[in-house]
Design goal:
By secondary structure, the chain is mainly α. Helices cover about 70% and strands about 5% of the residues. The chain has a two-stranded antiparallel ribbon with strand order 1-2. The radius of gyration is 23 Å and the shape is globular. The N and C termini lie far apart (about 50 Å).
Length: about 350
């Protein structure tokens, strides 16, 4: 990192000079150095959220396979069946699975950008990847940890009453997930970073450059021609357009009308994280289609395709509504007098 202790810059603290402090790095660059540490910590917390969510999903699937209750609504079985046969349980499990896979892919892409930012031989490529990684850090931290709350809560719900007691351990994942949205910077702190340092500072240029890459993936999905790929492309395009609208709103209002911009800061983070995860699911679908067509690990690839389609239809589809709340609903946050609460 280019940081080293300087023995020539020794400072004396405390009574009688009992403590010695060393300047680390160069003077007046402490905040810059601090963010190197904080970005690493925030990224790690985001991955921790993904890990807890994955374990909650595994636990819920196991329980849903074992717990027998009620006959399937389609009459496919004449006796009570494991609850994994019931549509709403499958919906919850698919929400857990798809969200975890999307966030895991998002974090992996961000990690790859970090590596390229440090080791790619081309200086311009290093700079581009560093900028991309910086934009992604609040999303990996903020979206992934908020996601872990939703996933672990669904894990409790799959277990029913058994999930609310200590015997199964499902509730422990929910409690463990809660702290992740708080430490190393609350979700609102991540959102402030996304609004101020990552979007408004460059007029939304970085965000729009990423959106242009997403549009390229949409074109690949449409060119694939499969029903799943085309459907994901449509959802991805709608989410991207919602994202660009919000980026324009944030860039225009962060200084001119800061209360309006920051009223939607966390929703903006959630929309952006949703889009980035959905983008990776679209890319995964394309790879899975090619691998399945080549006859490689077909059941796994088909599951990937189904999960990507579910993400698009059930999670990515939230983005346009979030856009409306940010761009058109900020007055509902700001207009009420403090005394009225």
């Amino acid at each position: 990192m280019g940081i080293k202790a300087s023995p020539t810059a020794v400072l004396q603290y405390g009574d009688h000079g009992g403590a010695v402090g060393y300047l680390v790095g160069e003077e007046n660059r402490g905040l810059e150095y601090m963010f190197i540490m904080m970005n690493a910590a925030r990224f790690a917390v985001g991955v921790q959220g993904i890990a807890i969510a994955e374990r909650a999903y595994q636990k819920a699937v196991q329980y849903a396979r074992d717990r027998v209750q009620s006959r399937p609504v389609d009459g496919s079985l004449n006796a009570a069946a494991p609850i994994i046969h019931h549509p709403d349980v499958k919906r919850m499990l698919m929400t857990m699975r798809a969200t975890v896979e999307g966030c895991r892919a998002m974090s992996a892409v961000a990690a790859a950008a970090y590596d390229a930012a440090h080791h790619h031989p081309d200086a311009d490529v290093r700079k581009q990847n560093a900028t991309f990684y910086e934009f992604m850090v609040p999303l990996v931290k903020g979206y992934s940890t908020e996601m872990s709350l939703e996933v672990t809560s669904l894990g409790v719900q799959v277990h029913g009453g058994m999930g609310f007691i200590e015997e199964t351990g499902a509730a422990q994942y929910y409690r463990d997930a809660k702290i992740l949205t708080i430490y190393e910077g609350t979700t609102a702190i991540q959102a402030n970073d996304l609004v101020g340092r990552k979007t408004a500072r460059d007029g939304g240029n970085t965000a729009k450059a990423i959106a242009a890459q997403i549009a390229g993936t949409e074109a690949e999905l449409r060119a694939s021609g499969s029903a799943h790929a085309v459907a994901v492309a449509q959802r991805l395009a709608a989410a991207r357009e919602a994202f660009v609208d919000v980026v324009d709103f944030i860039a225009a209002n962060t200084r001119a009308n800061p209360n309006a911009a920051f009223a939607g800061s966390v929703p903006y983070l959630m929309l952006a994280g949703n889009l980035m995860a959905g983008w990776q699911m679209g890319r995964a679908l394309l790879v899975a289609e090619r691998e399945a067509a080549a006859g490689r690990d077909v059941p796994f690839m088909q599951a990937k395709i189904s999960t990507a389609r579910f993400y698009a239809d059930h999670i990515l589809s939230r983005a346009p509504g979030v856009r409306d709340a940010i761009v058109e609903g900020h007055a509902g946050v700001t207009e009420m007098a403090v005394e009225a609460f």
